[in-house]
Design brief:
about 190 residues; alpha/beta; eight-stranded mixed β-sheet; two-stranded antiparallel ribbon
Length: about 190
């Protein structure tokens, strides 16, 4: 099956989760995340800002800021398909609904940070396989971004258990995540 077909199929499957299920599973995932050494030892975390039926990262971001972690969030530039990192200091004050109805920093709160500052990336995905390869939303933003960060930067895919598939069709630009965290398990890839 190709990525487009798999993406469509998985998005439909994920959309069938109720809000209660999404929040319950997301809470389990975030609790597991806070207990990981990779999280505890990180100073600067780059996280996607969840929307719709993704693993909810809003509380992860807020709680991480409260814990004194530095948090970066994506700013996507659709024309060039480039993603930049902006440091977020106040989740409730600094964001607005941007492209694709995804929360993004307001212009006056954009603080561009070098990807080299990041030591942990929380990665979204439509589907993941156990080798760490993912199907995203088709924009290629994360694969391009991964090629710009330090090889030692830890990448953790956050998804629901039902999003794990046996094999993601690969192309030569795909860069896998190091770990996948679901409500049921923590998978070490590769």
């Amino acid at each position: 099956m190709d990525k487009k077909v798999l993406r469509k199929k998985m998005l439909k499957k994920r959309s069938e989760l109720s809000l209660d299920q999404i929040l319950a599973k997301s809470n389990i995932i975030s609790d597991k995340l806070y207990n990981l050494n990779h999280y505890k030892e990180s100073n600067f975390i780059f996280s996607f800002i969840s929307f719709k039926d993704e693993v909810n990262t809003h509380e992860i971001i807020k709680k991480s800021i409260k814990k004194g972690k530095r948090i970066g969030v994506p700013i996507t530039i659709p024309k060039t398909r480039i993603m930049k990192v902006s440091e977020l200091m106040d989740f409730d004050k600094e964001l607005y609904l941007g492209f694709y109805n995804i929360l993004t920093p307001k212009d006056e709160y954009i603080r561009i940070i070098s990807p080299g500052s990041i030591d942990l990336v929380l990665v979204p995905g439509v589907a993941f396989d156990r080798q760490g390869y993912r199907i995203g939303y088709g924009g290629g933003y994360y694969d391009t971004f991964f090629s710009k960060i330090d090889r030692d930067t830890i990448k953790i895919g956050l998804c629901f258990d039902m999003q794990i598939i046996s094999k993601v069709p690969l192309n030569r630009y795909d860069i896998p995540v190091d770990y996948i965290l679901t409500e049921k398990e923590f998978i070490k890839c590769r």
